Amino acid sequence: MNDKSASFRAEIFDTGNSKIKSARIVINAPAEKIFSILADPKRHGEIDGTKTIQGTISGPDRLALGSKFGMKMRLGINYHVTNTVMEFEENRLIAWRHLGRWRWRYELKPLSPSQTEVTETFDGTTSISQTWLKLRKAYPWVQIAAAKTLVRLKTLAESD
Question: How far apart are CA 57 and CA 45, in angstroms?
Fold first, then answer.
């Protein structure tokens, strides 16, 4: 990412649920352009604010409802995850989960033909491992990571 990303931030906001963490940003690009980045699993490493994605190992070129895609990850140790797209509305909503069952969700709201508000949400309410999330102090960390991801997404979508 370039120095331009230092001049703006995503807004972190309270969802009212301690297991749901969100951030949002306005991107000067049409929803279709932003969604095409989110729906391409090979581009996820470019926008990943967690810096844990090491590469795509399997999956389609473009995601759809029910798509599965595998990612090579590193968070202290190397590992692989397989994600499944659980929510999908073309150019408006995409969300996936993996074995832990928490979801990463992106909601796109067009503000004009060339400007879109994007909200990224980490939803831990369906996780099968609340203890692991609490021990890892995941909730504060993922909210900051979501904001960083949105800044990276904005930088990419506005320069692509």
Answer: 12
